[in-house]
Amino acid sequence: MSGKPVLHYVSVRGRMEPVKWLLAAAGVEFEERILKTKDDLQKLRTDGCLLFQQVPMVEIDGMKMVQTRAILNYIAGKYNLYGKDLKERALIDMYVGGTDDLMGFLLSFPFLSAEDKVKQCAFVVQKATSRYFPAYEKVLKDHGQDFLVGNRLSWADIHLLEAILMLEEKKSDALSGFPLLQAFKKRISSIPTIKKFLAPGSKRKPISDDKYVETVRRVLRMYYDVKPN
Amino acid sequence: MAAKPVLYYFDGRGKMESIRWLLAAAGVEFEEVFLETREQYEKLLQSGVLMFQQVPMVEIDGMKLVQTRAILNYIAGKYNLYGKDLKERALIDMYVGGTDDLMGFLLSFPFLSAEDKVKQCAFVVQKATSRYFPAYEKVLKDHGQDFLVGNRLSWADIHLLEAILMLEEKKSDALSGFPLLQAFKKRISSIPTIKKFLAPGSKRKPISDDKYVETVRRVLRMYYDVKPN
User: Fold this and answer.
1) Domain enclosing residue A73, as ranges
2) Same-domain pairing of A167 and A91
3) Res A23 pLDDT > 70
């Protein structure tokens, strides 16, 4: 009799958003506990719920999991989105590593000054269009299949779609010049569980705005003097 | 007839060191190609073997793997150092995530100014002794076993030993106040494959010096200033 996973985090997309994507794509309902004050975070720490005093933390299958990669690996494995063997897993890990690096450039974005946001935006778009998108376009071109790995949906596809949509929020034609990724985006977006997650009313977070930035700074006591890449 | 894995990186620790540790602990011999010139790096780039134009890259079992975590996950899985099921893997991933964060604070260390090195050293020691070492001490205390996960050697133990030794290079009594970690360090160090890796003549790399920094800057054309945390 397992309850739904419970996600503990702050109110920005941050590091928890890929976890939501993966659960949603797997058709798994979950609950969220949003930390609103420093006391909320302190209580989790004092109760011994956070192995390294940090969020994200996900309560799942009797565990209090921390470390985003550990959480994602577990969910991917549990819901058969992690390939069929070690070699497929290696490919998925490689591809997810790339999209993780790319989306990682946007983690601190809400906390930058207006001027630095412009710089960082340009930086991320340049990385996406000169390094990451070409790599994934080539993967799709080389095997001609619909999915990145093993001719079926995996965590790598879900993570790449998330990255594509984040980039398009920064530059709406980010995918121009990448026809296979454009087709990939349409295809993965139309998978029922993912289509549902992309529709209004889902647990997907919008781009973080200033209202949330101050709360997060206060709760986590970080992100005060953030520099762009 | 498997060839030895081939590691492509600089002649220094950086992101490749954890991979060397894991292969050595698993008793797997490997070869290394050291990046020394810009021309060499550009040749690698042109040959298309670096998916995201970055090293580390490891040729193993017919794959050219990039992304440190993907490489480590694959080696751990292949050599039975990744637990016996999804839940043990989740614990290992969590623990490795912590030591990865901790050692990550030292990645840029060789590139810092003398003054910033002092600051960063204090920062890392403080994180280790107030956040990370207490967490691992508690894990060992709670189950009273010799290894972090599943009562047998796993990647998590090897990674933690690596982190402990790196910290002790910065503060020789970093483990004071952590008796279980002291015993753990002795115990894991005396495992034959690991003992061999810790002895002179192994492929373990020394602390990175100015020559290493100069090589990396030259090969990657990375001439900007690196700041501490």
Assistant:
1) 6-79+199-220
2) yes
3) yes
